[in-house]
Design brief:
The protein has three helices and four strands, in the order βααβββα. It is α+β, with helices and mostly antiparallel strands and about 100 residues long. Helix 1 packs across helix 2, helix 1 packs across helix 3 and helix 2 packs across helix 3.
Length: about 100
C-alpha cells in the first residue's frame, strides 16, 4: 500500500462538510467519481471501521484532508479521481444552505 494525501479548502462549517462526506445521498454522489456505485456500510465515527463498497452557526473555512492507503496498482486512478471527488464535496458543501 502507498499513502497519498490531498486537501482542499471548503467555505462551509465542519459539520456541513462532515454531513456532505457521510450522508448517504451526498456520499454516493461524490464517491461515484472514484468508483461508480460506491456506498458506505457502517457509522463514520472515530474508532469505528466502515466498509466502502462498490455497486456551529455560520461557517468559516474547513480544510478537508484525505489520507488513504491504496493498492499500488490503483494509485494512478486515485491520484486522478480523488481530487475530482474533493471538488465535488466542496461544491455540495458550499451550496446555499
Amino acid at each position: 500500500m502507498k499513502n497519498i494525501e490531498f486537501s482542499i479548502e471548503i467555505h462551509a462549517s465542519k459539520d456541513k462538510v462532515w454531513a456532505t462526506l457521510w450522508e448517504d445521498a451526498t456520499f454516493r454522489d461524490w464517491a461515484s467519481l472514484i468508483d461508480e456505485g460506491t456506498y458506505m456500510k457502517g457509522v463514520m465515527e472515530e474508532g469505528n471501521e466502515v466498509q466502502f463498497l462498490s455497486s456551529v452557526n455560520g461557517y468559516g473555512v474547513t480544510t478537508l484532508i484525505v489520507k488513504t492507503d491504496v493498492p499500488q496498482e490503483q494509485e494512478e486512478t486515485f491520484r486522478i479521481r480523488l481530487p475530482e471527488a474533493l471538488e465535488r464535496i466542496k461544491t455540495l458543501a458550499e451550496k446555499t444552505q
